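quick q for whoever's on today - can somebody do inverse folding on this one?? i tried earlier but teh output was garbage lol. tokens:
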């Protein structure tokens, strides 16, 4: 009897089938991945998280307990946020600095986005978001989109 060796493609197919049976991906994880992929905005500027009071030990020690502060930056535009827990919900009060926007969307993975207006000073408030991964999409007045990186609140 002769043994036939599998090609790389055949081996990968066989291993994928084996993994799908032995350790399938849970449906909630598949659903979250599909939702996250659907929320992408390829032409938006991304504002990266540059400060988080939950991990900035010296700032937390000085401030004591209180709201969590998040700062996102993209070039000369920043989104400053204060996150306050309310039981299992979160309130976000923020300000867009260095740019102007008419509205901000709060996107929570797996849920419908919540859109709120931005006042003339760049301030906005979003109440009652579920705890979990969130990002903000700022509709800038120059027609561009600024999207923050995901942060778990």
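ok took a stab at it. sequence:
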């Amino acid at each position: 009897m002769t043994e036939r060796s599998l090609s790389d493609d055949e081996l990968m197919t066989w291993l994928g089938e084996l993994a799908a049976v032995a350790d399938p991906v849970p449906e909630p994880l598949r659903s979250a991945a599909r939702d996250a992929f659907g929320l992408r905005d390829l032409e938006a500027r991304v504002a990266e998280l540059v400060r988080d009071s939950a991990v900035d030990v010296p700032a937390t020690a000085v401030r004591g307990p209180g709201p969590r502060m998040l700062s996102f930056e993209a070039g000369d535009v920043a989104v400053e946020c204060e996150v306050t827990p309310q039981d299992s919900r979160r309130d976000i009060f923020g300000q867009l600095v260095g740019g102007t926007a008419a509205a901000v969307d709060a996107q929570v993975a797996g849920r419908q986005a919540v859109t709120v207006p931005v006042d003339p000073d760049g301030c906005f408030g979003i109440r009652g978001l579920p705890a979990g991964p969130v990002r903000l999409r700022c509709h800038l007045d120059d027609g561009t989109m600024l999207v923050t990186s995901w942060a778990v609140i």
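fwiw The chain is about 20% helix and 45% strand. also Residues 147 and 153 are 16 Å apart (CA to CA). so keep that in mind when u check it
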